[in-house]
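Handout, section B. The chain below has 316 residues.
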Amino acid sequence: MQSADHMDTELLDRLATYGSCEAGIGGALITLVGPKPGLEDTYNRWYEDDHYISGALAWPWVFAGRRWMATRRLFATHAPDDSTLVPEALHSAFAHLYWIATEHVDDVEYFATVSVSELAKQGRMSADRVHIYTHFQDYHGAAYRDADGPRDIHALNHPYRGMVLEVIDAPDADQRRDLQKWYLSERAPAVLARGSAAMCLLFSPRPHPANMPADIVASVPPINPGRLTALWFLDDDPGTAVETLFHDEAETVAAAGLGDVQLIISSRPGRDRDERADRRDALKHGSCVLGYPKSSGDEHARSPQRRRATGPCQAR
């Protein structure tokens, strides 16, 4: 145990009184990451045993975190089928969500670059992953189904059965603000009225800060300033969410003239043991290789348009 003699009390005093202490979400670190095929076990042990804590939860002003898994079956239902955000080689993914306290997003973003640089010097970063969608994001508000249900600050602690990550692009930052207003006041309430989703939280990604790790910069393209991220928290099984909740999402958003849906992907709370069970299940059925249907020399079976497999690999 660290003794008081070795504590930097002056630093701690400043930290405790620095900025807002409001109990609210100012922003988030949102990552959608796929383990490289064949390296799932080493990636998950590194993430759960070290990086989940040292790479986010141990930072000042990060007050909640949760790991979600898009299993092979959930991953296969992502929409649109040909989303340019999703690398074709991946067959499953993890979404990691961390809430950042009000007025401290800049502070956490700066702290992160220093912390990750130090972890890299200690050999505690991993190359066993592909970043699909990794950004610090600003928070823009919530829509709720229930007047007396959990609030946004509770979303990562409440036992929701699923989470859907959606990415929508408006043409520019000004039109993104119009999209935000429409989405929170009209579109989100209409989807929430369908019953399965309890809340929708809206964010917008920030440009990558200086000194961002090279693997993130290399795999995640520069953001569209009109981009919006919607996080949906579900009471029900996420396996049918894309079809039941969002079957008309792309058409409705496009018809509003405010943006285009780039990605909708479902996930459930998941950890290493769930990912291993998912792989065993795929091998047991014997009909999927890396999440795609087996084929007899049919290269089109690996194209995005063919990811919705039939038979035992079908998302359910």
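Note. Residues 192 and 308 are 26 Å apart (CA to CA). Compare this with the example in section A.
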